[in-house]
What does this fold into?
Amino acid sequence: MPILARNAFEFFSHSPEQTRRVGMRLGALLQPGQVVLLEGNLGSGKTTLVQGIAQGWGSPNPVSSPTYVIVNDYRRADGKHLYHADAYRLTPGNALDTAILDLDFVLKDGTLVLEWAERVQDGLPNEFLRVVLSWMSEEQRHLVFTPQGKQYETMLKKLQQSLFGA
It folds into this structure.
């Protein structure tokens, strides 16, 4: 059995700044209607990655964790939205699950980045990019990107090219 899933890509970040830069490259590739699922323990770098995603996507707003507000909505000049949701405080079957993941509404003019995605299984789309982050040391994080669906396989290849060239 392989160590990584087919088409998965792993990246070792050596600083929060490097994690943000990876996020910036990913954010630049995101299109309305796409979903990024983030998983990892507290302190694994999820919000740091989203800071970069939002910047690369084109939001001028500072990013903070939506743990208590559940969803932050970042907008860019063209009117598109980046919905940054956090399922940490949700329990399976919670009515808020449905509100967060009203994907027809959210994805019509926006992109969804969901932290603690492993806590919300019902209602998730069939296709997405999953990023699992792991704490390795004070400065180092391990990121594993796994695409689910052709558009996300293509996105991941573009991300790899952006990070490492040809």
